[in-house]
């Protein structure tokens, strides 16, 4: 039996918690945060909660005085303990609006859920087999003041994930309105070319990933040279390596895009030198 946290109350995970008038259900009016729990510790928790609060402020939610990073962290750990997830677990925090119509929400106060799911035990490692990717052809992502958020309105990524599954792919690149690389369905994109690293700037519509931010902060001290740069499909095909980053899996290397195959020399070094010790 799994439990979830709904606005501070720990309840059975199968209990219904919203009405048909809920704005999160109707409009995707909210954001979410995905974190990893490792032996009772939330790696990169400060970055996760900073991103969450930035989204809360940008979407004009009202928060009660007690609702802060310390409170939310305690709620996460309490739920994980209740679910007996004390090894490795995936944590999802969802922030959403309550009931109301398009222009008349009943109020702007934060509603939230916290969920946890057990992850496999054992030492983390980079994927043994390279991922197979292609481009999702049926949607283009906008780039605006909200495009970097992990929005509950996740339709382009959801459909891209379904496309990947139906076409025997591991993931898909999601493009922006200009046809440039944003990210993939669950990860930010890095390429390696001539020993240098490149990733799309957030102004291109990519989700502002926590692992992406952490990697960019760590690269200089570990000898890697990284740049934010607009990436086009020809950059993907010309790359020596490609890897994807997110907070739960760290990084995963791409083995093939269409008819181009890739190695994972730099990707493996980055995992071993930067990522592996926090997962």
Number of strands: 14
> Beta-strand percentage?
25-35%
Biggest sheet record = 9 strands, mixed
Series of H and E elements: EEHEHHEEEHEEEEHEHEEEH
What's the helical proportion of residues?
Answer: 25-40%
Compute the CA-based radius of gyration.
19 Å
Distance between the termini: 26 Å
Question: How is this fold's topology laid out?
Answer:
Elements: E1 3-6, E2 9-12, H1 23-27, E3 30-38, H2 45-58, H3 69-82, E4 88-96, E5 111-118, E6 131-141, H4 155-166, E7 171-176, E8 181-184, E9 188-193, E10 196-199, H5 210-218, E11 225-228, H6 233-238, E12 241-246, E13 250-257, E14 260-261, H7 265-275
Parallel strand pairs: 6-7, 6-13, 10-11
Antiparallel strand pairs: 1-2, 1-5, 3-4, 4-5, 7-8, 9-10, 9-12, 12-13, 13-14
């Amino acid at each position: 039996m799994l439990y979830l946290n709904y606005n501070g109350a720990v309840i059975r995970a199968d209990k219904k918690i919203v009405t048909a008038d809920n704005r999160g259900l109707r409009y995707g009016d909210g954001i979410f945060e995905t974190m990893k729990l490792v032996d009772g510790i939330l790696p990169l928790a400060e970055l996760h909660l900073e991103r969450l609060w930035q989204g809360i402020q940008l979407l004009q939610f009202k928060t009660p005085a007690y609702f802060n990073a310390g409170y939310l962290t305690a709620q996460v750990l309490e739920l994980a303990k209740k679910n007996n997830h004390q090894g490795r677990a995936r944590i999802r925090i969802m922030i959403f609006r309550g009931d109301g119509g398009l222009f008349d929400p009943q109020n702007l106060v934060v509603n939230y859920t916290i969920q946890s799911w057990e992850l496999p035990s054992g030492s983390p490692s980079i994927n043994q087999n390279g991922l197979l990717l292609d481009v999702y052809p049926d949607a283009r992502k906008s780039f605006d003041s909200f495009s970097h958020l992990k929005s509950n309105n996740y339709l382009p990524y959801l459909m891209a994930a379904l496309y990947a599954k139906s076409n025997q792919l591991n993931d898909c690149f999601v493009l922006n309105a200009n046809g440039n690389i944003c990210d993939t369905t669950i990860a930010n994109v890095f390429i390696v070319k001539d020993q240098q690293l490149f990733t799309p700037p957030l102004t291109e519509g990519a989700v502002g990933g926590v692992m992406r931010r952490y990697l960019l902060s760590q690269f200089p001290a570990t000898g890697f040279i990284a740049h934010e740069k607009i990436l086009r499909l020809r950059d993907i095909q010309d790359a020596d390596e490609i890897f994807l980053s997110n907070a739960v899996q760290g990084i995963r290397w791409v083995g093939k895009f269409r008819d181009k195959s890739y190695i994972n020399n730099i990707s493996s070094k980055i995992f071993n030198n930067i990522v592996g010790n926090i997962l």
